[in-house]
Amino acid sequence: MDYKIGGLEPSQLIVIAARPSVGKTGFALNMMLNIARNGYKTSFFSLETTGTSVLKRMLSTITGIELTKIKEIRNLTPDDLTKLTNAMDQIMKLGIDISDKSNITPQDVRAQAMRHSDRQQVIFIDYLQLMDTDAKVDRRVAVEKISRDLKIIANETGAIIVLLSQLNRGVESRQDKRPMLSDMKESGGIEADASLAMLLYRDDYYNRDEDDSITGKSIVECNIAKNKDGETGIIEFEYYKKTQRFFT
């Protein structure tokens, strides 16, 4: 994927869009861990779930311990606990900031972007449609304003902003349910704002017979539908939902 997208560039607005529960949060967290390991300052605004939940997902990804086992705690072995301790140390050393404030605005993102001006920063937001805006306008207009504001913030601060987005239900009515840019919920303007747009699709999301219940493995198609600085096209990932891991 790094080769196809051409690497990260300052001031990019990157969009990751999918239907609910397809795996966009897990995909974003895998991406964030890889970016942080390469020396970038990273932060994650989680509007949908708690910071603790985000941390547990990251621990599952790093250690390979099933997420449900981490949540239950009591079934963890001494070896599991050692792995989790080491993973927590790794996250602390990477300096990843996690915020679960539920009413963040573009100005909160600007403040974060300006806080670490000495390092290239990558800011993840999960997800666009839950963000607040001061504008008292129609929700579609408000979401488009948020998208535009985030693009301006990326341009002015040099931060890379990775914005997760929901897809609307229109995709469900088509025979081929693979998403298109026009399916992004409440935000036609984001097509213009985004430097890079990735649309995620899982066949077993719609066809349960395709689900591998033993390994929890799914095939996720990542459609790079827009890319100003590199190639477009589809990349397939193996997604292990039980451990939140993605592999090409």
UniProtKB/TrEMBL annotation:
- Give the enzyme's main class according to its UniProt record, as a single word: hydrolase
UniProt KW Hydrolase keyword:
yes
CDD domains referenced in this protein's UniProt entry, alphabetically:
DnaB_C
- Indicate the segments annotated as coiled coil, or none if absent: none
Give the EC number(s) under which this enzyme is classified. 3.6.4.12
The GO terms describing molecular function are:
ATP binding; DNA helicase activity; hydrolase activity
UniProt entry tagged with the keyword Hydrolase? yes
PANTHER family from the UniProt entry? REPLICATIVE DNA HELICASE, REPLICATIVE DNA HELICASE DNAB
Official protein name in the record: Prophage L54a, replicative DNA helicase
